[in-house]
Amino acid sequence: MIHFQEVSKHYENQTALRKVTFEVGKGELVFITGPSGSGKTTLLKLIYLAEKPDEGIIKVGDFEITNLRDSHVPVLRRQIGIVFQDFRLLENKNIFENVALSLRIRGESEKDIKAKVFESLKVVNLRHKADSYPKTLSGGEQQRVAIARAIVSEPAILLADEPTGNVDPDTSTGIMRTFKEINAKGTTILIATHNRELFRNTGRRVIKLDQGNFIGEDIG
Amino acid sequence: MSLSYTFKSAIKNILYDKWINILCVITIATGLLFTTITWVFVYNIDASLKKLPERFSVMLFLKDFVTQSEIDKIIKIAKNNTAVDKVIYVPKDEALKQLKKTLKNTEYVLEGLDVNPLPDSIEIRFKDDALSPENVKKLTSTLNSLNGISEIEYGEEFLSSLYSLKKGLKIAGIVFIIILAITILFVSYSTVKILFYRRKEEIETYKLLGAKKWFIRAPFIIEGSFLGFSAGLLSYFGVVTIYYLFFVRLSLTFPIFKAMIFPLNYFILLPFLGTFLGICGSVIAIGRIRY
Predict the structure, then answer these.
(1) What's the CATH superfamily of A1-79+157-164+179-220?
(2) Spatial distance between the Cα atoms of B280 and B278, rounded to a whole number of angstroms
(3) Measured between alpha carbons, how far is B240 from B237 in angstroms, rounded to an integer?
(4) Cβ pair B260, B247 in contact under 8 A
């Protein structure tokens, strides 16, 4: 489903990723771990083309994204649900509208949007906050809204960047449970985290990065 | 992409940034108002200068013993000139009558004159679009060579300076209108650009979630057209207010305002002009969206 071959990414005076090669199969739930600055976020950004690689080949689903045409980028992104590290919630829209945005972009009907948004908010236990605005929510609640928005369109791939970074242990457990349930339905999930507790005893693949280098794989 | 959602989204955005939008509307409306008023002045100057040929004429004063055949020849040559509209022969008796009419209450200045001192004359009027210093000069030099004419009179310097003034005013007016139009376009562009920058993060999020270009662009263009339309409407009300407050009221006290033309019917186009400017501003401000 996701294929990285000798992928490198450089910034002005820093190498974010150096010749990274790995593969994630369809329906897998894989963790990417490493300390801050190890390249986890860059790796995810390369998948949804927020960044372009300097070297190597990246394949996502049927797309060879290294040379993807500009007009095909939205098509690729519609197959991916993203939980951004900084949530990226729109302050001028309420929670319902924030979650609905993914569906509106895909041109879904009002009826479907209403049903799917409430279902998605129910999964993250925030149905009662549909009319609230992001600023009135706690960090943990905002994170759960970001997850609801990422899963509402039932994407083939879900990318989560530090999805439990702002939540208490109980909420963290709840979020991981949600991811496992989504994964059980066939969604390929990639979770970038520095929190070892998150993948301990999960029996899932863990890709380890350090200073932009792929340093090995483990089972959590 | 749902059209109703796009409209709702645009309206929400307008309300969300209401203060900057109000400021933008006022700025564009002021620009449009100034442009309109300038245009009214240029229009009036142009209209009054167009009336000039009605008042301007070349006078040919004839010699005392001019023959009828000489007069006919002069009239024929003048009439054959393509720039000439009318050729009027004024006999000396008719000229005296006109003079007496003009003098009215001061007719006594003519008392004691036993002989009519005025000569026979020919008045030549020009066509509206053909009155120019060059055409007048061309005709008078032809006529100068004919027998029977003692003097040709027309304000040569007056005519050329008036035409220089007309040209100058017209160019200045057009330049001023162009400058104002560019200013308005720039203000519309800058406002939408500011709105665009303020919502850069939002647009980035839209892109990352898979929005196509028109999903992002459409609300901005609707916003731009709404702001432009509102500004146009506001400037229209401004123009109407100025018309009633100054032209109608002041024309009662100062008759000069009565002579001015204020084509109020044209100004109903202002909201549409504003909409056009708003759309142009938005399109330029958004530019190319890259992923």
Answers:
(1) P-loop containing nucleotide triphosphate hydrolases (3.40.50.300)
(2) 5
(3) 5
(4) yes
B201 and A88: CB-CB below 8 Å? yes
Contact B176, B38 (CB under 8 A): yes
CA B262 to chain centre: 11
CA nearest to A91, candidates B23, B4, B205: B205
- pTM, two decimal places: 0.69
Residue B291 lies in a domain: no
Q: Please spell the DSSP secondary structure of B66-88, one letter per residue.
A: --HHHHHHHHHHHHHSTTEEEEE
Does the beta-carbon distance from A101 to B206 stay under 8 Å? yes
Stated length of chain B: 291
Contacts of B201 in chain A (CB under 8 A): 88
| A147 touches B at CB < 8 Å | no
Can you give the pLDDT of all 291 residues of chain B as single tens digits?
A: 677 788 888 888 888 888 888 988 898 898 889 888 888 887 887 777 767 666 678 889 998 888 899 999 999 999 999 889 889 999 988 888 888 887 777 767 777 777 888 899 999 988 877 878 888 888 888 888 888 888 888 877 777 777 787 788 778 878 887 887 787 778 777 776 777 777 788 889 999 999 998 888 888 889 889 989 999 999 999 999 988 887 788 777 777 777 778 888 889 999 998 898 888 878 887 777 777
User: Where do we find the tokens 């970074």?
Assistant: A165
* Domain count across chain B: 2
Using the Cβ of A107 and the Cβ atoms of chain B, whether some distance falls under 8 Å is answered with yes
- How many C-beta atoms surround the C-beta of residue B98 within 10 A? 12
